[in-house]
């Protein structure tokens, strides 16, 4: 049976939980679409996150990888289109590093596009009543670092999904949107199913005006 690697991050930025890991670990061992999901946590640390990822790739030899991260302030499931070759940290990572304008791969291209069917995933999530959109930026923090590094390895089909704060986190950030853990878990499970089912993406609108 083929393996789908689903990664989430440890808490960062003063938070006590990270919804990406809380949701991913709920799906560890789940079988669907002829595949088994294996969840692994990554450190929210530049460099160390990719080293951990390399270990998981070598151990599991997955057919597909979906990395997941927290995007506090976003209101929906954000399926990332592109990762850029830059680390530019607004805050320090969990090891106290704060790289500014540093290339992730000196010999790498400016950007990589997700190899997941991003529009099919968004359409499928919306059809199930889960707010979702194509995102045109994964930021320049550790999430983008991992997405770029993952695609730079040119291994299995891979991409990145951002999820909102959990309600208990949003309660500490007045006005911030949130999504329940159950909905986040359901969204990731469906995203895996859709990614396994669609080798070709849908040719539908998914752009942004700004």
Describe this structure in words.
There is one protein chain. By secondary structure, the protein is an alpha/beta fold. The chain is built from six helices and nine strands, in the order βαββαββββαβαβαα. The chain has helices spanning 19-26, 48-60, 118-127, 142-152, 167-170, 181-197, and strands at residues 2-9, 31-32, 35-42, 64-70, 77-80, 82-84, 111-113, 132-135, 157-163. A hairpin with a 2-residue loop joins β2 and β3 (35-42). The termini are far apart. The relative contact order is 0.22. Removes 5-oxoproline from various penultimate amino acid residues except L-proline. Keywords: Cytoplasm, Hydrolase, Protease, Thiol protease.
Given helix and strand content, the structural type is alpha/beta
In the CATH hierarchy, the third-tier topology is known as Aminopeptidase
Uncertain runs are: none
Percent helix: 25-40%
Characterize the largest beta sheet: strand count, sense, and whether it forms a barrel. Answer: 7 strands, mixed
Number of domains: 1
Tags for this model:
210 residues; alpha/beta; Aminopeptidase; seven-stranded mixed beta sheet; two-stranded antiparallel ribbon; 30% helix
